[in-house]
Amino acid sequence: MKGDAGGKMIIKSKLKWVGLVGLVLSALSLFTHFLLARYSYTEEGITEYQAITIFSWRPIFENADLSSNNKLYKRLWGPVRRLESLQPHAKPRAHYSVPVSESDRYIFVRIRGGFHEIRSSICDAVVIARLLNATLVIPEIQSTTSSKGISAQFKSFAYLYNEDQFMAALANDILVVKTLPKTLKGARRKKEIPSFKVLNSQSPYYYLHHVLPVLIRHSVVELVVSDGGCLQATLPPDLEEYQRLRCRVAFHALTFRQEVQELATKILHRLRAPGRPFIAYDPGMTRDALAYHGCAELFQDVHTELIQHRRLWMLKRGIVKGNLTVDSNTQRLNGSCPLMPEEIGIILRAYGYSWDTIIYISGGEVFGGQKKLIPFHAIFENVVDRTSLTTSWELNRIYGREANLVDKYPKTPPSAEKEMRHEAWKTSGQRPRPLPPPPARPKSYHIEGWWGWVAESDNEPESTVIELRTNAHKLLWEAIDYMVCVEADVFVPGFDRDGKGRPNFASLVMGHRLYQSATAKSFRLDRKEIAKRMEEISDHLYEANHTWIKSVRSHLRESLLDRLTEESKASKSLSFLSFPVPECSCLRSESKGASTSQLPAAIKVARSCPAWMGKDVVSRPGDKENEDDLDEDDSGPFGLFFRQSGGSSNRNNGGGGGRGGGEMMSSKEETQMEDQEEMDGGDR
Asked: What is the spatial distance between Cα 148 and Cα 142, in angstroms, rounded to a whole number?
């Protein structure tokens, strides 16, 4: 018996040792996997990888590799060769004095508005400080002050931009300080500083003859900017250096704070990880823009009511002129309304972009929500935005440590009359008495866009702290989208006007791309022409014929160059940053003596680039191919919404001229299209 018991004990002890060894090996295995996930051995040594982030997007492609040598690729993604001699050059070209080391004049600026208005206003403020030989105090952005519920880590300007980089980049242009001197801070608290509410059309004459005398007398002035700028877009020829100063501010000094830049860089890395180019698309569908241009009838139900309510508000304040009710279809045919995502999807497919093209949707607000994007998602498989390329903790990191706002919907105090009734009920009559009716249930409204007040009130409720904080977050979202759109291989705007009829976010992106890399494709669509094309196939929207496809391709090719002249007239007079050429550019002559006469008249630059910018442009054989030669016949009558099944199968089926020429959309896309038809009632 004792021998049996001893044997069992030995077996148990061995099992314990085996279990212990197994645990140790498991721990070592986990540790090894963590090391492999973070480090990798290369020929140059050990390389450390960034942490792997899990997000929702999983790209789907028809072919694993995308050839970049064929003509179709060059037409879709290749550079605009006729603009390759245009180079960015915003440095001073004439005598340019360095600012005085000490200045007793200060300009303090308070800015209201959206992302594009803030950016334009800061550039104008710098120019005015230079014009008046004054020191600029870091501008205060009203949307990002502490009262808006943002993190206490940031102070207004620093919530969006890098203060130190801003000051360092402008050291040779103006003096910039973070705060007013102590002697002037008290005067500002007591509101003793003279203040000017300026418009975006103010001329340099206004500042030299009205603001400067007050500045000399009081040593400080405050400018309140709520009009998307505080200086006219076009300046006299003798002030051309101030236009280049605008470019230096917008494209070099105004860099976003580090956390925002890092997240935008991660998104760009994730977009390019599959090894394919991508399109950035900005719908431009904001409530203010739709209300200003009278596009309410393009939407349904509560969205129409919201747009009409906003238009009525604009009419009362003189922001827009005309009638409350506008024929939206007429506005659309005139090119005054945004192109719908479905229309953008159709023309991109007609141009030749395949169903598996990566498309990034930008914009802090897409009015109408996901319902308006359903057809676009059905046309293209790999449609993403910042939410599908980031995790929630990555977005929360750029917001900083924010206080928890428990009371989302502040309750209004009861009126004095109700209080008196309640007290009278307590002291009057014998008991028992019937109880008073229960108080009305407090109304609450969804903070993320479901505006229930439209059906119950004519007055829009005041924004809660949560909504104000969300508006501040939108600035960060648009900052991320701005960086992605500027670096995109192709940029497509759905609309280029804001809620005041001026250039919007998309216009600033196109201006930045024209300055930074003029050869990058940016389609400047003629909305009137596109609306006309869409009317031609309204009865057979998804079965466009070959002639229609050719006409759309011709228009998109023309929009890359020919539309530059029209854009310079329409946008530059309203916002210089939307078209900073030719003031902020120079020409690099071609080595073989080719002339620059092919450049559009709007961007012809007389000045050649300085020698330090590098060698001349070298023309390679085949670079100057005619765009018409690149226009391959790769789509049949039904090619828009059918996946191509490969070159051999297309040839076997007669070149893809009918439904047999390609593979039909996936069941997911078909389901989305059927759902959309049900919501729209089967009609267009």
From this structure: 9
Of 326, 322, 348, residue with least CA distance to 337: 326
Q: What is the mean pLDDT of the chain?
A: 79
Task: Give yes or no for a contact between 101 and 68, defined as CB atoms under 8 angstroms apart.
Answer: no
- Separation CA 387–CA 84 (nearest Å): 35
User: Which stretches within 152-257 are classed as H helix?
Assistant: 157-160, 163-169, 182-189, 204-206, 212-218, 240-248
DSSP 643: B
Q: How far is CA 45 from CA 40, 41, 124, 296, 486, in A?
A: 8, 6, 50, 61, 34
Contact indicator for 251, 590 with CB cutoff of 8 Å: no
d(CA 348, CA 376): 11
Bridge partners of 384? 360
Confidence of residue 7 (pLDDT cuts 50, 70, 90): low
Ramachandran class of 145: left when φ > 0, alpha when ψ lies in -120 to 50, beta otherwise: beta
CA distance 340 to 559: 18
**Calpha distance 316→324 (Å, rounded):** 10
* Strand runs labelled E in 599-662: none
User: Would you state the structure tokens that stand for residue 450, as one six-digit string?
Assistant: 């479901």
- Mapped onto helix, strand or coil, the DSSP state of residue 401 is coil
Mean pLDDT is highest, among 497-511, 538-552, 626-640, for: 497-511
Please give the helix or strand (H or E) that residue 667 lies within, else none.
helix 667-679
pLDDT digits (tens, 9 = 90+) for 127-179: 999 999 999 999 999 887 777 777 877 888 999 999 999 999 999 999 999 99
What are 256-299's pLDDT values in tens digits?
999 999 999 999 999 999 889 999 999 999 999 999 999 999 98
Phi, psi of 503 (to 5 degrees): -55, 140
Q: Which helix (H) or strand (E) holds 109?
A: strand 106-111
DSSP 210: I
Q: 């059905």: which residue's tokens?
A: 378
* Helices and strands: H and E segment counts in the chain: 25, 15
d(CA 122, CA 648) in angstroms, rounded, equals: 57
Instruction: Spell out the alpha helix ranges (H) of 446-526.
Output: 465-487, 505-516
CB-CB contact of 271 with 281 (8 Å) = no
Of 82-96, 438-452, 542-556, give the lowest mean pLDDT range: 438-452
CB 146 within 8 A of CB 130: no
Name the percent of the chain in helix, strand, coil, to the closest 5: 50, 10, 45
Most confident of 118-127, 193-202, 396-405, 631-640: 118-127
Query: In 418-435, which positions are buried (b, 16+ CB within 10 angstroms) versus exposed (e)?
Result: eeeeeeeeeeeeeeeeee
What per-residue confidence (pLDDT) applies to 642? 46
Residue 483 in 3-state DSSP?
A: helix
- The string of pLDDT tens digits covering residues 315-374 is 998 889 889 999 999 999 999 999 999 999 999 999 999 999 999 999 877 888 788 899
How many Cα atoms occupy the beta-carbon half-sphere of 147 within 13 Å? 5
For residue 423, give every residue at least 6 positions away whose Cβ sits within 8 Å of its Cβ, in sequence order, or none. none
pTM summary value: 0.80
Q: Structure tokens of 325?
A: 């009710």
In terms of phi and psi (left: phi > 0; alpha: psi -120 to 50; beta: otherwise), the region of 292 is: alpha
Is the distance from CB of 662 to CB of 639 less than 8 angstroms?
Answer: yes
Instruction: State residue 336 phi and psi, 5-degree precision.
Output: -90, -5
Average pLDDT over residues 392-402: 88
**Furthest-apart CA pair in the chain: how many Å?**
114
